[in-house]
Known about the structure:
The protein is built from 14 helices and no strands.
Amino acid sequence: MILANVRGRLRAQDFRLIALALARGDAVRRARYERLLLEQGPDPLLDEPGLLEALLLIRSLVVPSAALFAYVAVRHTLLASGVTDRELADYLAALVLEFGDHDRHARLRRADDQTYRYLVDMVGELTGMDDTGERGFLLRVHLGNYSLWLAGLFPDYVESRHSRQGGPDLPYYDELGRQGYRLAAEHRLAARFGVADIYRTAAQRFPTLRVAFNRLSDRVFFPHVATQEKILRNL
């Protein structure tokens, strides 16, 4: 299962790159950021205003690791939306990394024969399922994760399918995503794995998270894609 562990994957070279990117060639500024890391730990440095822009501007052979870029992109986008919970940002960064790997977004686990492409299939399987079992728990989590992944990072696809084929709209994903995280937070295994509070917060703030992911998609992942839906979102 996905855990909030991206910050824990960061290494010394990641923090050296942060100081280098923020300093923008100024040795004094670089020394100040390195001192900040030593004195206060990584979180203030990772939250430094302008860090995401600095990483996006890097034009060299040294590039951010996937873990560093994912965490900073998610964390700073959430901060701009008023979501300050670091553990939630860490979890959602892990979600972006995990679901970005081939067809992982369609599976409850990496090694799982069954795939899910539609929310209605997840809801249907949950109906009458054993509430205490591991698969039921993972399915609830996946309902939340997949809703946020698809409607958050691919809103144009959702809206296009809605307008042309009568598919579900973004509020539909908001509602089922919120329901999935809420049910997951209430499951006994959520407390066992230490993720109940993360799921609970994600359920409470799901529409805000989805809109934040829309901005992340527009600004970072698909900045050069122009659609009518994107223009309307950014008015």
